[in-house]
From TrEMBL:
GO molecular function: ATP binding; ATP hydrolysis activity
Highest taxon, organism lineage: Bacteria
InterPro entries documented for this protein: AAA+_ATPase, P-loop_NTPase, ParA/MinD_ATPase, YlxH/NBP35
GO cellular component, as recorded: cytoplasmic side of plasma membrane; cytosol
SUPFAM superfamilies assigned to the protein according to its UniProt record, in alphabetical order: P-loop containing nucleoside triphosphate hydrolases
Record's protein name: Transcriptional regulator
Alphabetized UniProt keyword annotations: ATP-binding, Nucleotide-binding
Keyword Lipoprotein: no
Length: 402
């Protein structure tokens, strides 16, 4: 059953008839809230293009609190990136043009599928199963600045979440010059520095109070607004945040500065999958080689190092074989170079949100789904072994041993 509200009665009748008998027209947003409260199995709401945006956003935010597994799909007569970004932040799963009825049906079907998966995990359709495993930590790293770490981290987080099928924490460990807030146009009202007062006793509620929601399934833990505050977040606090986040999220994606700080090492030391980025130029490849050497010294597992070549198609006279020879590791993913990346960053909407079929989105989605076990249509909890944090020695022990 799809609960549908459109304030213009003629339009509501016509559109409901077009979509079929699965659709139940309602008289107001308040009526939908009552129906959702009364029916624990309600999974999908369709809001017509006559619903003004602020009302739709407030409704979605409210639903996210009272029924996180409920999907809200919004119709808009014109697709505008600013509206799209706001809709995503409020937790709306899809925004579609009403004239494209096939696309509307597909969006509704996708949302229902996500709700079905979440229903089991969130106790709306069945009691929540015990969480079989801790969240997986994925760190995006490069020894050289500007390789595309933040671009990768933000898009990867959205891809892993698969429209809300998985919960993902995007953590900005570039503590002095973090870009996640600006890239997603999030107001940095809360940041990691607010965790300082909770050191030693950070629990799930404390962690949640620090988060800024971005898109269905994706919450951000932002870097402090200024470099001075960044210094107050020490490695023990980073370890504590990660430990707590593993209990709450399916995936934690860490964005990093281009160097091995103490805080970055705290994350790398308990990372399950490393995304190592380089661009096809000699300084960047040399830095990746040095990073690999450092990883060897630190005994980070080789089979969890995923080397990604960003701007891979830039014609700069290096063949893939040349690159693999310098790096001494296979390139596992190639992300093309395109002006659509800076354009999407300037708009504050990751390409993965704006255009899932874009070659950049496809390359990152492939990594998320086939290499990391995220995305839609996967198990809500990846059936994996215990996380790295439980099986490896702490970094300090290793450092002391050298
Ligand atoms: N595939 C791409 N195609 C075109 N431009 C790209 C691509 N990836 C990244 N860029 C551009 O490169 C610049 C640096 O990207 P980004 O900020 O993601 O790198 P970074 O590694 O996080 O940098 P820093 O080390 O400063 O944090 C941005 O202007 C971005 O638009
Ligand atoms: Mg960055």
């Amino acid at each position: 059953m799809i609960l549908y509200f459109e304030p213009q009665p003629d339009r509501a009748r016509e559109y409901a008839a077009l979509l079929g008998k699965e659709v139940r027209p309602t008289a107001s947003l308040g009526a939908i809230t009552e129906l959702v409260n009364a029916d624990k199995t309600a999974q999908l709401v369709l809001l017509g293009s006559g619903v003004v945006l602020p009302d739709a956003l407030n409704f979605a935010k409210q639903m996210r609190m009272i029924r996180p597994s409920l999907g809200v799909v919004l119709l808009r007569d014109h697709l505008d990136v600013t509206d799209l970004a706001e809709a995503l932040r409020a937790g709306i799963r899809e925004v579609v043009l009403p004239g494209d009825v096939v696309a509307v049906r597909e969006a509704l079907a996708r949302s229902l599928e996500v709700s079905r998966q979440l229903g089991g995990a969130m106790g709306t359709a069945a009691p929540a199963p015990a969480r079989p495993t801790a969240g997986r930590l994925i760190t995006v790293f490069a020894g050289k600045g500007g390789c595309g770490k933040s671009t990768m981290a933000t898009n990867l987080a959205v891809a892993l979440a698969g429209n809300g099928a998985h919960s993902v924490l995007l953590m900005d460990l570039d503590l002095s010059f973090g870009d996640v807030a600006i890239m997603l146009q999030l107001a940095p009202e809360r940041s990691m520095v607010d965790a300082v007062g909770m050191t030693g006793r950070l629990d799930e509620t404390g962690l949640r109070s620090l988060l800024t929601p971005f898109a269905p399934g994706v919450d951000a833990l932002l870097a402090p607004a200024g470099p001075a505050d960044g210094e107050r977040v020490n490695r023990d606090l980073v370890s504590e945040i990660i430990k707590t986040a593993r209990k709450v999220f399916d995936f934690i994606v860490v964005d990093t500065p281009p160097f091995f700080s103490d805080q970055v090492l705290a994350a790398l030391d308990v990372t399950d999958h490393y995304i190592l980025l380089a661009t096809p130029d000699i300084p960047s490849l040399k830095n990746l080689r040095l990073t690999m050497d450092m990883f060897d010294l630190l005994e980070y597992p080789k089979d969890e190092r995923i080397v990604v070549l960003n701007r891979a198609d830039s014609h700069v006279g290096l063949t893939p074989a040349d690159i693999e020879r310098v790096v001494r590791a296979p390139i596992q993913a190639n992300v093309p170079s395109t002006r659509d990346v800076p354009v999407s960053i300037n708009q504050g909407v990751p390409l993965m949100v704006k255009d899932e079929a874009h070659p950049v989105s496809k390359a990152i989605k492939d990594l998320a789904v086939n290499r990391l076990g995220g995305g839609e249509g996967q198990q809500v909890y990846p059936a994996t072994a215990e996380p790295a944090g439980n099986k490896r020695r702490p970094f300090l022990l290793r450092r002391g041993a050298r």
